[in-house]
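Quick start: load a record and inspect it. Here is DUF3078 domain-containing protein:
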Amino acid sequence: MKKLICCFFITAYSYCFAQDNTVKFLKAETEKFFAKESLDTSSKNWRKGGQFNFNVNQGTLSNWSAGGDKFSFSLNAFLNTYAFYKKGKHSWDNNLDLAYGIINTTSLGNRKASDRIDLTSKYGFSFTKNMSLALLSNSRTQFAKGYAYLKNSTGGDSASVTSKTFAPAYVLLSLGVDYKPVQALSIFLSPLTQRYVIVTDKRLGKFYGLDSGSRFKNEAGAFFSANFFKKLNANITVKSKLDLFSNYKNNPQNIDVFFSNVFTAKVSKFINVSVNLDIIYDDDTQNVNPEKGPAPQILQLMGIGFAYKFKG
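Running the structure step on this input writes:
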């Protein structure tokens, strides 16, 4: 009986020891697996983020000898989001800008101050350290109706519709070379670009160089785009974009220009001072004053208000 009991304990001890070794082995292998997984950099291939600015200004005058509107109110909102991907020779840059603003005064009523939808997506395959063969697409339009305001014969304001949602919309597809000397700067050049000008309301087509009764036109040409996005220091950020397009089919020497700039200076965690400056020139876009020829379109906004930055 004693021998039987001894055999039982010896067998049980051997079994437990074997089990303990098995557990240790599995634990070691698991730790190796998770250590390997922790080195996975797939999430680091993406760089995502954005900024939202919301500025409000209000003023009131009462018995003000220097003159002016009794009441003024303005609201401007701007949102920029980006998602940049980089892995090996492949890159994919995406950027979306949304802006909308209104102003209200006693004498002028409600008027639109800014309005933009701008989406750019660019895929690149690098063949040197700083240069890539790239395919770029860009879509640019607006949210709401726009008006031209002129004085009528009685001296009052007359308003006429000059734009609507997707009237106009510019859609561009381009194949070219992308050069990135530093992370903050990207320069894209293409001799092969197709651009579509879309005006959903036929009555507005004449303002954007479309034939009577047509809703769109296509243009083949050369395209240049330079983008700069950098945090200059702990408080100041600059975002700038310059697009140039030359239409091979019609007056290639008259280059279309789209130049957009946003400067932001941090006052506190959620308060920023922002300055927006946009310059647009398109030889086919009619002047708001029909008696004058094509001219640069300039938009400048400056304000202080709520700001929020986010990262993915």
